[in-house]
Design brief:
Strand 9 and strand 10 form a beta hairpin. The chain has one domain: Rossmann fold, CATH 3.40.50.150. By secondary structure, the chain is α/β, with parallel strands linked by helices. It has six helices and eleven strands. An eight-stranded mixed beta sheet has the order 1-4-3-2-5-6-8-7, sandwiched between helices. Strands 9-10-11 form a three-stranded antiparallel beta sheet. 26% of the residues lie in helices and 22% in strands.
């Protein structure tokens, strides 16, 4: 069951512009992807099975796999990544976490509109595009994969021969270069959450929420590409409906 809710007044002001194309943000968390989609030009609605008090847009509490996709122009989905992470594979604990990518993909394909599935490196995505935060001018690496039924352009990673920050679990740490060797880095001291927020381009989340989020810049970069292809897909649909 999907329960529609608005967020408390202490959260960011809910941002809705009805003239924009409508995006549904499945498994939305605290809104890293949602904010990027808003900045790309979408009116955003989020769905998550857990209450998200700081989600900055219209929020619906419920199971993303049961969400009604009708009425939306685009769907973004970020199913849980824990099953596919390096740490879970190393601890042989992956079976304790759900494998939701296949059912999410089936739901989106049955719907038929444009969509993106986001997840970590190692997730079973088909022909994904990868983004790196450093390539987008951020101070986090945070490689993520994106599968879509639309053609997506990525960015070259460009190397990691610079200082950046790591968000691991509930910690923010700096990653410092050691000498001229680009691989000569070490995980430095724990730093303030505020530094992690600045590095991620997120100013409304807790440290724990940021650890499960993607920087808004990722979804903004890809969302702008989707925005540009929406008129073409709409015209193609009208053409086929008239045949």
């Amino acid at each position: 069951m999907i329960e529609t809710e608005t967020n408390p007044s202490r959260c960011l002001k809910r941002l809705v512009m009805p003239s924009r194309p409508k995006a549904l943000d499945l498994f939305c968390g605290a809104g890293g992807a949602g904010m990027g989609l808003y900045r790309a030009g979408f009116d955003v609605t989020g769905v998550d099975i857990k209450q998200q008090r700081r989600y900055p847009f219209w929020f619906m509490l419920g199971d993303a796999l049961e969400a009604d996709l009708s009425g939306f122009d685009f769907v973004w989905a970020s199913p849980p990544c824990q099953r596919y992470t390096v740490s879970q594979n190393a601890s042989r604990n992956r079976e304790a976490h759900p494998d939701l990518i296949a059912p999410v993909r089936a739901k989106l394909e049955a719907w038929g509109g444009p969509w993106i599935i986001e997840n970590v490196v190692g997730a079973p995505l088909c022909n994904p595009t990868m983004l790196c935060g450093l390539a987008l001018g951020l101070k986090v690496k945070r490689h993520r994969l994106f599968e879509s039924n639309c053609f997506l352009l990525g960015l070259p990673c460009g190397g990691h021969d610079q200082d950046y920050y790591l968000l691991q679990g509930r910690e923010v740490r700096n990653r410092v270069r050691m000498g001229a060797d680009p691989k000569g880095t070490r995980c430095g001291l724990r730093v303030a959450t505020s530094i992690g927020r600045e590095a991620m381009g997120i100013d409304w989340m807790t440290r724990a929420e940021m650890s499960e989020a993607i920087p808004p810049a990722y979804a903004e970069f890809l969302g702008r590409q989707i925005i540009r292809c929406l008129p073409a897909r709409h015209n193609e649909k009208l053409k086929h409906s008239g045949e």
